[in-house]
Amino acid sequence: MLASPEAARFVLVTHAHLFKPTYPKSKEMMIGPWALFFHQGEYHTRLRKLVQYSLAPDTIRKLIPDIEHIALSALDSWAASGQVINTFYEMKKFSFDVGILSIFGHLDGGYKEKLEENYRIVDKGYNSFPTKIPGSAHHKALQVRTCHFSLS
């Protein structure tokens, strides 16, 4: 048991090899072996730095007008529907839109829609039972991941 942040940092830095995260093979297949959280050391550090730039406060600050536009558009859509909304689904959609904006900038509508469609398929399959039975969520996600991720 550790009693201080310094002790925890010492253990995690000097004994990092003891804390290597592991994931089921089905999840590694789904995301791909080069995903950020499957790696440690120098490669992980380089990938993390690439991702961090897209999410840095200065980068996000420049995107505030665009993020506000996404938020207002979502609010208008909810008000116009006149129905009860599923906040979990709507926040996932909002987070996806902001993430895409932050990482890729402004994308052509058709390209963004195809990316979102493929992401939703992979998202559903990620936590499903790992079977290759055609039509299953896992099988569809693997197809998108390996064969059908063509966004052109």
Structure characterization notes:
The chain has eight helices and no strands. The chain has 152 residues and is mainly α. It has one domain. Helix 5 runs antiparallel to helix 6 (87-104) and helix 7 (109-126) crosses helix 8 (137-146). The N and C termini lie far apart (53 Å). The model has no long low-confidence stretch (mean pLDDT 84).
Roughly how much helix do the residues carry, as a percent range? 55-70%
| Share in β-strands | under 5%
Distance between the termini: 53 Å
Low-pLDDT runs: none
Query: How many distinct domains?
Result: 1
Number of E-type strands: 0
Computed CA radius of gyration, to the nearest angstrom:
19 Å
SS element count, helices = 8
Overall residue-averaged pLDDT value: 84
> What structural class results from the helix and strand content?
mainly alpha
Gross morphology:
globular
Following the backbone from N to C, one meets helices and strands in this order, namely: HHHHHHHH
The largest sheet, given as strand count, sense and whether it forms a barrel, is: none
Family: Belongs to the cytochrome P450 family.
Keywords: Iron, Metal-binding
GO molecular function, one term: iron ion binding
InterPro entries: Cyt_P450_sf (IPR036396)
Q: What is the fold's blueprint, element by element?
A:
Elements: H1 5-14, H2 25-31, H3 41-55, H4 57-62, H5 64-81, H6 87-104, H7 109-126, H8 137-146
Helix pairs in contact: 5-6, 7-8
Family: Belongs to the cytochrome P450 family.
Keywords: Iron, Metal-binding
GO molecular function: (+)-abscisic acid 8'-hydroxylase activity; heme binding; iron ion binding
